[in-house]
Design the sequence.
C-alpha cells in the first residue's frame, strides 16, 4: 500500500482541497496537524483521507485504495474505543471530533457514477446497510456536537466556527429546535405530504426536524447565504426515527432525502459532488414513479421550494 511518508507529504494539499471554508482549513493546519502525532486515531484518520483523495485522483492505483482502507479501519477502531469509554476526557473531545469528521468525509466520498447502483435498488439487507453507511454514520457527528456544546471549557471547533461569517447564523442547530417561526417556513405542500400540523413535534412526527432543517436551508439558499457547512448539518441532526424510515425506503423520508441532495447541485468538492449527484439521480427517478401524485409533482420540479422562498 502507499507508504505513510507519501501520504503525509500530500496532507497539506489534501486539507486545502477538502475543506470549503477558511476556518476549516485553518483549524486543521493550526490545530489538528500539529497535534495529530500524539493521537493515533486522528493520525490514521488524516492518512486515510490523504490516501482516499489520491485514490480519487488516480483510481487505477490499488496501492492508494489499500492504504485508505487500512488507515480507515484503524482510525475507526481506535475512535470506537474512545467513544466506549465510561467517560471521555475533555481534553480529547476536539481531537475525537476531528477524527469523526475525517471518517465521515471518507465515508461520503465515492467514485460511483451509475445511479442504478444506489442502495435504493438493492434488496439484500447487508448490501443496503453497507451502501447507506455514508449517511448513517453522520449520526456520530450530531452526538459529538452536543457534547462539545455542553463543554464548559469551550471547544476550538465552536470558537472558530462561531467567528466564521460564512457559517450562516440562520442555520445554527439549537436544542430547542424547532420553533414557531420554523413551522411557518415549511412549504405547505411538504407539510401536507408529511402530515405536519400545529400539534406536530419532533417526538410525534419523524419528518418534523428534517423538514424544518430543509426549510431553513431553502430559505438561506434562496437569499444567497447558503454554504456547504449549512447543508452538511442535515445528516448529523436528523433523528434516528427518520434514519430508520429512510433505511426502509419510506417515500416521504426519501422525498426529504432528495430535497437535501438537491442543495448540493452545484457542489464540486471531490468527496461530495459525485455522491450527491448520483444519489439524487437515483431517488429522483424512483419518486417520479410514485403512486402519490403529490410526490410525483415535487419530483417533477424540486427547485420550486427555493424559488418560492426567494419571492417571500
Sequence:
Amino acid at each position: 500500500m502507499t507508504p505513510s511518508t507519501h501520504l503525509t507529504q500530500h496532507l497539506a494539499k489534501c486539507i486545502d482541497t477538502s475543506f470549503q471554508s477558511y476556518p476549516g482549513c485553518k483549524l486543521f493546519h493550526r490545530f489538528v496537524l500539529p497535534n495529530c502525532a500524539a493521537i493515533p486515531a486522528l493520525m490514521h484518520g488524516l492518512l486515510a483521507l490523504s490516501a482516499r483523495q489520491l485514490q480519487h485522483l488516480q483510481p487505477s492505483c490499488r496501492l492508494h485504495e489499500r492504504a485508505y482502507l487500512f488507515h480507515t479501519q484503524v482510525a475507526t477502531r481506535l475512535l470506537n474505543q474512545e467513544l466506549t469509554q465510561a467517560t471521555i476526557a475533555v481534553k480529547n473531545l476536539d481531537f475525537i471530533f476531528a477524527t469523526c469528521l475525517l471518517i465521515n468525509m471518507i465515508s461520503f466520498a465515492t467514485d460511483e457514477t451509475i445511479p442504478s447502483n444506489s442502495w435504493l435498488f438493492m434488496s439484500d439487507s447487508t448490501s443496503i446497510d453497507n451502501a447507506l453507511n455514508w449517511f448513517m454514520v453522520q449520526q456520530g457527528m450530531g452526538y459529538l456536537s452536543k457534547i462539545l456544546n455542553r463543554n464548559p471549557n469551550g471547544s476550538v471547533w465552536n470558537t472558530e466556527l462561531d467567528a466564521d461569517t460564512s457559517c450562516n447564523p440562520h442555520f445554527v442547530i439549537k436544542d430547542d429546535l424547532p420553533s414557531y417561526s420554523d413551522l411557518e417556513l415549511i412549504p405547505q405542500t411538504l407539510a401536507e405530504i408529511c402530515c405536519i400540523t400545529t400539534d406536530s413535534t419532533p417526538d410525534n412526527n419523524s419528518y418534523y426536524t428534517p423538514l424544518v432543517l430543509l426549510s431553513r436551508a431553502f430559505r438561506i439558499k434562496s437569499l444567497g447565504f447558503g454554504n456547504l457547512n449549512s447543508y452538511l448539518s442535515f445528516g448529523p441532526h436528523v433523528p434516528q426515527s427518520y434514519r430508520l424510515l429512510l433505511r426502509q425506503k419510506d417515500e416521504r423520508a426519501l422525498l426529504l432525502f432528495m430535497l437535501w441532495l438537491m442543495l448540493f447541485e452545484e457542489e464540486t468538492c471531490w468527496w461530495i459532488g459525485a455522491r450527491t449527484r448520483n444519489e439524487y439521480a437515483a431517488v429522483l427517478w424512483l419518486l417520479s414513479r410514485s403512486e402519490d401524485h403529490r410526490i410525483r409533482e415535487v419530483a417533477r420540479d424540486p427547485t420550486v421550494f427555493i424559488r418560492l422562498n426567494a419571492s417571500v
Residues 169-310 form one domain. The chain has 18 helices and no strands.
